[in-house]
Predict the structure.
Amino acid sequence: MSQATYELKAEARERVGKGSSRELRRNGLIPAVIYGDKQAPISIALNTNEVTKRIHAGGFMTTIATIELDGKKIKVLPKDYQLDPVRDFTMHVDFLRVSGNTQVTVEVPVHFLNEDKSGVKVGGVLNVVRHGVEVHCPADNIPEAINVDLSGKKIGDSIHISDVKLPKGVTPVIADRDFTIATIVAPAGGVTEEEAAEE
């Protein structure tokens, strides 16, 4: 799990709607909402620079944050954010309130390990089918990445979700089939006899 939790200071938003949102953005703030955990949604405003920095740092959607509002601390997980299509600045963020037993659905990036111990070393090409996998997991135990070990995989092999050891409590959203994450394929020109012998 990404342990790099962080805090954001927020102020309550009295007025909602397009006019007040535009005014907030002019003042360097982003409108946001906190919902979930069987409580009423709270409309808040956050510092634009702080949020943008967090989004560009990576792992924004899989890292739990603490929002400080009127002296209270609320644990949240970002669920969605909107960027201005032209100017690429953050327009709005939705946060899900999380507690110890909250289950969340998040997309976790896939990392491939030990390419040098697989068919890739002898000229095979790693064909990545999924760069991320959507999983159900406890909000306080979101994996930073799903690591796929390629050791011993040969040209022509496929790597399925069943080949991957997922952390405890983490299950793929697609449960009805053993989907492919990647394949190791022969290069476009084929493999030379020498490379095939090495393999």
